[in-house]
Write a structure and sequence with these properties.
heterodimer, A: alpha+beta, 2 domains, 5 helices, 4 strands, about 20% strand, B: six-stranded antiparallel β-barrel, about 40% helix, elongated
């Protein structure tokens, strides 16, 4: 049986090759329907994002406590490229005041939590 | 107060902050998609390996650990270690980078611990210097040596007829309430009484807490706890804990095996272990096989028991002896799990309900019990008296059932039945009273050489006790020599027989009067 990962690999290859046609989408939709996995669309999208990393294409979510300046964004993107080896980044920036400070970077396969919120949590855990 | 140094304190805090700055790094993360009955399904964590430990964040920020058992392309099935309270769908899951490990070492001796190595006896934390992998490959062919040293159980019927050697796996099998645990406990007690230096590891798998508590108390009373580790799980523990318990116990016992020492491990019992694994496997949606057990239930026990071994001299010659226990239903040893474990082990001691209720305790079935390798480890002293014992008893049981239909028996048959009755009496032994090698040999000489033939069944026990006491008192050299396992000289045997005959006469029976 074809797995969701295999379907995601197939879809990622098509997207990267620029053949993201309606036909391909229809194929994927019918596979989801046939295997009763229509509620796993989000997972499939994540799987596709992960499959695209093989081609150097990284879909990244960046959360910070405050709006980042263009210069900082540029610095963050450069360091993400250095860390992951990505050639192309698709960045989504979010602001979350709960972080207090610092930054959280999520790639399809990994996460870097350098927020003040998590550091404080670690300190509290250490004190316990 | 003179130790207080504010400047140093400030520096320590600065160092801690710097440490935190360096702490953030990219780590693989996944998401819990489903939680049910102690099982979590996780999306992501593609680098996760089999048996890797996963940390799951709960709602209140605490972390619950699970270990991965099902690695599919799209998701991971993991079993939560402990309670699933607080774990919800959507929780973040990360790899800890560890496979399952437990503390090992001499610091654990005398303690009661959980399958994760945490103390359960209220005696404070256990600080060991080493950790041991719960799942470890068994020693290979070249790392082993044939079983050649006896592991005395102190139970005369076992040490003479189904002897156990150090490094052997001997199964204790029988219905409920037939004395399986009693044999295991007596064996542990004997290690302390005979000062063998063998470390006992008792693994209680899903045993009632009250039973474990009583057992620990008994071990303390007998002075055995000082060389014993108890790994305890109760029926209220999660199936994952029951599953881990024997592997944990083995990891702890292996420490002694690998450090030139001898250890004895008791798995009480592997039937419950198989049931716990079946529960986990069914919840992980693995296909059920015979009796709904998963396909790898044989491997579950074979890989566990294969870790019990006698190591080669190059590796220190340490040993790990295993006494797994299996509970049968209505004496059916042909069920799935019993046949599996029988085929894995180096022999089995089968306990029969009928014998137990006839008062023959330990209720060992001579016909169905066997030790495949222990004979090589039997002491010469025991071997000299055990020769035809099994055969004589087997013949007696056969003839005894035949004799029920006929009162007209020839002399030879009568003699065999009488001797069988006597031997059965001599082999009866009360719980918590293991006998030394010398005591066993003296009892067997007295019984097999005909010295006690005139006694009634009820007098046999006290006569044997008196014979042992008398030999111990008046023939110290013989007693010491027998205790070392040396084969008795004919003259020594003669002396023991004379003492036995004298004591038998004092009971005042002129001829055979059997009950």
């Amino acid at each position: 049986m074809t797995s969701r990962t295999q379907v995601a690999d197939y879809l990622a290859d098509k997207i990267f090759a620029g053949t993201n046609s309606k036909k391909v989408m229809a194929e994927v939709a019918s596979w989801l329907q046939a295997h009763n996995k229509t509620r796993q669309v989000n997972y499939l999208v994540n799987d596709v994002a992960r499959a695209l990393t093989k081609h150097g294409y990284y879909c990244v979510s960046i959360t910070s406590a405050r709006e980042l300046s263009q210069v900082t964004k540029k610095q963050v993107e450069t360091s993400i490229k250095d860390m992951t080896g990505a050639t192309t980044l698709e960045c989504t920036y979010r602001v979350d005041r709960k972080l207090i400070g610092g930054i959280i970077i999520k790639t399809p396969e990994a996460a870097l939590d350098a927020s003040i919120q998590s550091r404080l949590a670690k300190i509290i855990e250490g004190v316990k | 107060m003179s130790d207080l140094n504010v400047k140093a304190l400030s520096r320590e805090i600065d160092d801690a902050i710097n440490g935190l700055k360096d702490g953030a790094k990219m780590e693989q993360s996944g998401v819990v998609t489903k939680v049910s009955d102690g099982i979590v399904w996780i999306y992501g964590l593609r680098d996760c390996g089999f048996s890797d430990v996963i940390a799951i964040e709960t709602k209140d920020g605490a972390k619950v650990e699970a270990f991965a058992l099902n690695l599919y392309e799209d998701e991971i099935g993991a079993v939560i270690l402990g309670s699933e309270v607080g774990v919800n769908a959507g929780a973040k899951a990360t790899l800890t980078g560890n496979t399952l490990e437990v503390p090992v070492g001499p610091e654990l001796v005398g303690r009661v611990v959980s399958p994760l190595g945490l103390p359960l006896d209220g005696l404070g934390p256990i600080k060991t210097k080493q950790m041991g992998l719960i799942e470890r490959p068994a020693p290979g062919v070249m790392e082993r040596k044939s079983v050649n040293e006896p592991l005395a159980t102190g139970i005369i019927a076992i040490d003479t007829m189904v002897p156990i050697g150090r490094g052997q796996r001997e199964l204790l099998i029988g219905d409920r309430q037939t004395g399986k645990t009693a044999i295991a406990v007596d064996t542990m007690i004997n290690q302390a009484r005979q000062k063998t230096g063998v470390i006992n590891v008792y693994v209680a798998i899903g045993q009632k807490s009250a039973k474990v508590a009583a057992l620990v108390e008994r071990l303390k009373t007998e002075g055995v706890m000082d060389q014993t580790i108890v790994v305890a799980t109760s029926p209220s523990d999660a199936a994952s804990m029951l599953y881990l318990a024997p592997y944990t116990g083995t990891a702890m016992a292996e420490y002694f095996r690998d450090n030139k020492q001898h250890a004895l491990i008791i798995y009480d019992d592997l039937s419950k272990h198989a049931v716990a694994y079946r529960q986990m496997s069914l919840l992980l949606r693995r296909p059920p096989g015979r009796e709904a057990y998963p396909g790898d239930v044989f491997y579950l026990h074979s890989r566990l028991l294969e870790r019990s071994a006698k190591l080669s001299d190059d590796l220190g010659g340490g040993s790990l002896t295993a006494l797994p226990i299996i509970e049968t239903q209505a004496g059916d040893i042909s069920a799935y799990i019993p046949t599996n474990v029988i085929s894995i082990t180096d022999g089995q001691i089968f306990l029969e309900t009928n014998l137990f209720y006839q008062g023959i305790r330990p209720a060992i079935s001579v016909g169905l019990s066997v030790s495949r390798v222990g004979g090589a480890a039997q002491t010469k002293a025991t071997k000299s008296v055990a020769g035809t014992l099994r055969l004589e008893l087997a013949q007696f049981r056969e003839l005894a059932s035949f004799a029920q239909f006929s009162s007209d028996l020839d002399e030879d048959t009568k003699n065999r039945i009488d001797r069988g009755r006597l031997l059965t009496e001599v082999l009866k032994q009360k719980q918590f009273q293991p006998l030394s090698v010398a005591e066993q040999v003296i009892a067997m000489i007295a019984a097999t050489k005909g010295a006690l033939d005139r006694l009634t069944n009820k007098d046999v026990e006290s006569a044997v006790t008196r014979v042992i006491a008398e030999v111990k008192k008046s023939e110290k050299t013989i007693y010491a020599s027998l205790d070392k396992g040396t084969k008795p000289e004919d003259a020594d045997v003669e002396k023991v027989v004379k003492i036995a005959e004298k004591i038998a006469k004092s009971f005042g029976h002129d001829k055979a009067k059997k009950n």
